[in-house]
Design a protein that fits this description.
60% of the residues lie in helices and 5% in strands. It is mostly helical and 325 residues long. Strands 1-2 form a two-stranded antiparallel sheet.
Amino acid sequence: MEKTMTTNKFSLVAEASLDRRLFLAQALAHGDTLGRIPREQADALYQSIAAIAHKLITMKTADLSDESALRTHIQTAFTLTSLGLEYGSKGDLDRAAQLLHKTRTVKFFQIGNTLMEKSLDRARHLLEHAVILPPNRDEERLLGTNYTDLETEGIQIYTQAELEFLKALLIYRTSIRTLQVTIRDTETPRPLLHLAEVEMIDRQLACIENRCDYVKALPLDNLFALDPPLSILPNPIEHLTLGLIANLVLYRQVDFQLDEDARQDFHQLAYVDGEIRESFRQQLLDWIAKYLEQAQQPEPVKNYAVAYWDDCLRIEGQVIPSQSP
C-alpha cells in the first residue's frame, strides 16, 4: 500500500510518500484488507505523521530551502513511527492493525525515537572517542620522548567505511545489509525499514566498540613512532594488527613495525596458496585470547578480537599472494 501524504496545514511535507516496504505501510495495508482501518483513520494517521515531520523540520532545519534536509526529516518521521509500531506489535500485523486503531500515532514515534537514540548515542560516542591520541606534552616528558617532528594526528579505530556507516546512522539510515567483523562492503545509505536492521546495527556498533577495547589493551607506547605513521593509512588498526602478528611469527616479540621485507618473510613462512597455515593460525588466535584474558578484558572483547585476527589473516592472504617456502 502506497499513499501520498497531502495536507494544507503542513505544506512542507506535502507529497511525501510512504515506502511500501516499511512495517507501517504493511500494517496499514493489512488493516485495510481486514476492514479495520477506515479511510478517515488512515487520513488522520498521515496528518499525525505530517505534524511529527513538521515539528522535526522546525526543530532541526535552519534553512527551509534545503530540500534534502526536509526530505530527511520527513523520512525520519515515517521511519521512527514504523519502528515504534513494529516494536509495540512484536512484528505481528494483526496486532499492529489493532494498535493503529486505538493508539495515538505519536506514541509509536516516541517508541521508535527511544529505540534509535540509544544507537545514535553510541555512534556519536564512537565518532568522538574511537581514536588513539598522541601523548600530550606531560606524557612525552615522562616517557622521555619527543614527537614534535613526527606525524601526531589521532589514529582512527574505525575504517572509512565505518565512518560512513556511523554518519549515516545519525540521520536514521544504514549503509550495510550484513553484519561484518570490519565493515568493508557498503552501499548508498538508505532509510531503515525494520527492527531487524536496528538489531544488526547494534551488533555492528558492538564490533567497533569491542575493537576499541582490544586496541587500547595493547602496549601502544611507541605507536606514534612507527614509519609510516598509522594515521595516514586507510585501515590503520588492521595494519597495526598485522604488524603485531608478523612480529610474533618472525621474531616472537610484541612490536607493530611492519616493512615490506618483513611482510614478505611472514607470507613465505605462514601462508600457502593464500591460506594461513592452520598451525600458525591457531597459535596466533590462542595468543591474542590469552593476552586479553591477562589484560582482564571481558569475553565479548576477547571473542571479537579472535574473530578480528582471523579476519585479518584471511584478508591478508588475499591482498598479497603467498609464495611457497
